[in-house]
Structure prediction request, 225 residues.
Amino acid sequence: DAGVIQSPRHEVTEMGQEVTLRCKPISGHDYLFWYRQTMMRGLELLIYFNNNVPIDDSGMPEDRFSAKMPNASFSTLKIQPSEPRDSAVYFCASSRSGGRGNEQFFGPGTRLTVL
Amino acid sequence: RKEVEQDPGPFNVPEGATVAFNCTYSNSASQSFFWYRQDCRKEPKLLMSVYSSGNEDGRFTAQLNRASQYISLLIRDSKLSDSATYLCVVKGGGRRALTFGSGTRLQVQP
Prediction:
């Protein structure tokens, strides 16, 4: 199993540009989560999906952030326009209903730097 | 107040030492508890779940005190490879998602 796949692994962009992060969950997992990690705030949940439907987006910082899951094997997190304070590591994670202890498997993350 | 609070450390211990981490959580409706491990510049990975009766996995022992809303992790006979950040995680209170503490950094020294 390839695990959760994220791309790109690193992204450097300029303020005002659109950024799109991509995630492929583990096959058969029906939950997908997007997290953001910074030194100041730690690991924060942004949004999660169940069976491709957004369930809780209360962690999305503001309207500049949007997430989609068009099918069970693909999700995107978009930031438009990006700002320097969006610089962070963005993790995608997936899990399976009834899985062992509801374990979430994380992707390697996308390290975003907004100049 | 944060939902999950941990001492950030770092804890610097020699190889072979026993070290304990503590964590408190604020939501009394929390139902599931975990310890995740995160290596530097890597993703978090599940270390172990925490059960009410306490549980052990090799050198690692986790305990839960629901009355005090307190979780602990004990590592015996520390190895250099145990150096990492340990994240206390809770789930529940009507949410499927996990709530992470900010982590406790452990550095095991030769």
